[in-house]
Specification:
By secondary structure, this protein is an alpha+beta fold. Helix content is about 40%, strand content about 25%. Helix 1 runs antiparallel to helix 3 and helix 6 packs across helix 7.
C-alpha cells in the first residue's frame, strides 16, 4: 500500500480528457477516465500479454518472462488499489467500450518506493529505476513531498498512431490539478514513449544510456549506444 490515499472529494470515475482520432473508416472518439473495477482484471491481462513483451529494460537484463509477469502483476495490483490509474476507452458501435491504452499512474510520496522484490533479477531492474529517480532529484527541484508518477504506459498495437499515448500523458495535468499535485513524472524507456512525452510537454530531468547502466550492473552490453532511459516531468 502507498501512503497517499485518494480523497472522496473528487468523483470516481472522472473523465479527464476526450479527443478524436482517425482510422481507416474515418474519425473515432476516445476518452480517458479513472479505471473502474470492471476493467481491472482485463487491463492486467492486457498488460501482461502485450506490454511485457515490449518492455526494454527487463528484456535487456534477461529477467525471465515468468518473473516479469509475477512481479509486474503485483505492482500493478498495488497501484490499482490507489484508484488513480488512467485508462483510454473508445466507442464500439453500441457495444461495451474497447480498451485502447493504459497509464499506471499513482501518487508517490517522498522516501517511498514503488516496490521491492525478493527476486534478484527483478531487483536489479528496480535498482536502475531508483538510480534514475534519485539523480533526477525531483523532490528537491520542485520542493514537494509527493508527485504523480507512473509505472507503465501502453497503447494497444491496433490503436497506435492516434496519439493515445500523448493524450494519456496530457490527461495527467487535469488529474494533478484536481488533487493539488504540483508535478508529474515518469521514466520513459523507448523512443515511442519519449516522443509521446515530448508531445505532451514533458521535459527532461535526467537521462541514462542503456549501456551505461548495463556496465554498472556488470551485464552484457548491446549495440544500443543511442538508446536511453529518460526521467521526464511536467509541472
Amino acid at each position: 500500500m502507498y501512503k497517499w490515499i485518494r480523497p472522496s472529494t473528487v468523483k470516481h470515475p472522472t473523465i479527464w480528457k476526450t479527443f478524436t482520432g482517425k482510422n481507416n473508416t474515418g474519425t473515432k472518439k476516445y476518452w480517458i477516465q479513472d479505471i473502474t473495477n470492471e476493467y481491472k482484471q482485463q487491463i492486467i491481462k492486457f498488460s501482461v500479454h502485450t506490454f511485457l513483451k515490449d518492455e526494454p529494460v527487463t528484456n535487456l537484463l534477461d529477467v525471465p518472462l515468468e518473473i516479469r509477469e509475477k512481479e509486474f502483476t503485483k505492482i500493478w495490483e498495488n497501484i490499482l488499489n490507489q484508484r488513480m490509474v488512467l485508462i483510454c476507452l473508445s466507442e464500439n458501435n453500441g457495444s461495451e467500450p474497447v480498451i485502447c491504452g493504459v497509464n499506471y499512474t499513482l501518487v508517490l510520496s517522498k522516501y517511498e518506493k514503488v516496490y521491492s522484490s525478493t527476486d534478484v533479477n527483478f531487483e536489479r531492474f528496480l535498482m536502475v529505476l531508483d538510480f534514475i529517480q534519485e539523480n533526477g532529484k525531483l523532490f528537491e527541484k520542485f520542493g514537494i513531498d509527493k508527485y504523480l508518477y507512473s509505472f507503465g504506459l501502453y497503447v494497444s498495437p491496433e490503436y497506435r498512431g492516434q496519439n493515445i499515448g500523448a493524450n494519456l500523458l496530457e490527461a495527467r495535468d487535469g488529474l494533478c490539478k484536481a488533487f493539488g499535485l504540483k508535478a508529474t513524472a515518469a521514466i520513459f524507456g523507448s523512443k515511442y514513449s519519449q516522443r509521446a512525452a515530448e508531445i505532451a510537454g514533458f521535459q527532461n530531468l535526467f537521462t541514462l544510456y542503456y549501456n551505461d547502466f548495463l556496465k554498472k550492473l556488470n551485464s552484457k552490453c548491446y549495440n544500443i549506444l543511442n538508446s536511453l532511459l529518460a526521467l521526464k516531468a511536467y509541472w
